Amino acid sequence: MSWPWLVSLQHQGHHYCGGALIGRQWVLTAAHCNFSTVTDYLVIGRSYLGSIRDGDLIPVKAVYTHPSFTQLPPSDDLSLLHLEKPVELGEFVSTICLPGKDDKINLVSKCLTAGWGITEPHQDEFPKTVQQAKVPLISSISCRSYWGLEIKNTNICGGASGSSSCMGDSGGPLQCGEGGQYKLIGIVSWGSSNCHPAAPTVFTRISAYTDWITSITGGEAGSLREQPGGTVITSGKGNT
């Protein structure tokens, strides 16, 4: 699997948001996805969601939502999901590294996003096979000029180049290749309601939240290490 840290959030057997595996027992997603430990489960290590069985569903024992989260427009839009048991890492399941607190965003970085969100504005159901798209980063100034003042320093913007994140992609990772490995630079937060390809997608900037993530996970997430094989690749309940 090209994205062994990619997670599908599932409600009653259906995908509705994405997430990223940042530790053997931790998934990072968007708070507005509103994950429920009672009705929802995770699927990890699968690129095709058409043959999911009960044994593939991973339960979550606790949800930690950022205390400053607000809904409209989403701000501080992060939740940490604490899995009931650590997952086994291997060829199809691995964690993604987190950026450092002081990491600067390089607008020429090679970044991609992936997920099972709809690919057309009026699509009735999500695709079963994971989709991916290159995401050129854009400056906060350019993003503010498009969206207005809702863009904060805790956001990062990308896209507006013929492809965009759409409904069902919320919570999914913005991953950028650097030094032979990927880092989780952002989590899909919001964007155009009709998935307009010229509209920038707004991501939650992970480097702004490393202290909060560490305080919740106790340092059990996001450690730097080589990805398997050293390979670098050059929402239902929650809407993007």
UniProtKB/TrEMBL annotation:
<keyword id="KW-0222">Digestion</keyword>
<dbReference type="InterPro" id="IPR001314">
    <property type="entry name" value="Peptidase_S1A"/>
</dbReference>
<keyword id="KW-1015">Disulfide bond</keyword>
<comment type="similarity">
    <text>Belongs to the peptidase S1 family. CLIP subfamily.</text>
</comment>
<keyword id="KW-0378">Hydrolase</keyword>
<dbReference type="GO" id="GO:0006508">
    <property type="term" value="P:proteolysis"/>
</dbReference>
<protein>
    <recommendedName>
        <fullName>chymotrypsin</fullName>
        <ecNumber>3.4.21.1</ecNumber>
    </recommendedName>
</protein>
<dbReference type="InterPro" id="IPR043504">
    <property type="entry name" value="Peptidase_S1_PA_chymotrypsin"/>
</dbReference>
<dbReference type="InterPro" id="IPR001254">
    <property type="entry name" value="Trypsin_dom"/>
</dbReference>
<dbReference type="GO" id="GO:0007586">
    <property type="term" value="P:digestion"/>
</dbReference>
<dbReference type="Pfam" id="PF00089">
    <property type="entry name" value="Trypsin"/>
</dbReference>
<dbReference type="GO" id="GO:0005576">
    <property type="term" value="C:extracellular region"/>
</dbReference>
<feature type="domain" description="Peptidase S1">
    <location>
        <begin position="1"/>
        <end position="218"/>
    </location>
</feature>
<keyword id="KW-0865">Zymogen</keyword>
<keyword id="KW-0645">Protease</keyword>
<keyword id="KW-0964">Secreted</keyword>
<dbReference type="GO" id="GO:0004252">
    <property type="term" value="F:serine-type endopeptidase activity"/>
</dbReference>
<dbReference type="InterPro" id="IPR009003">
    <property type="entry name" value="Peptidase_S1_PA"/>
</dbReference>
<dbReference type="InterPro" id="IPR033116">
    <property type="entry name" value="TRYPSIN_SER"/>
</dbReference>
<keyword id="KW-0720">Serine protease</keyword>
<dbReference type="InterPro" id="IPR018114">
    <property type="entry name" value="TRYPSIN_HIS"/>
</dbReference>
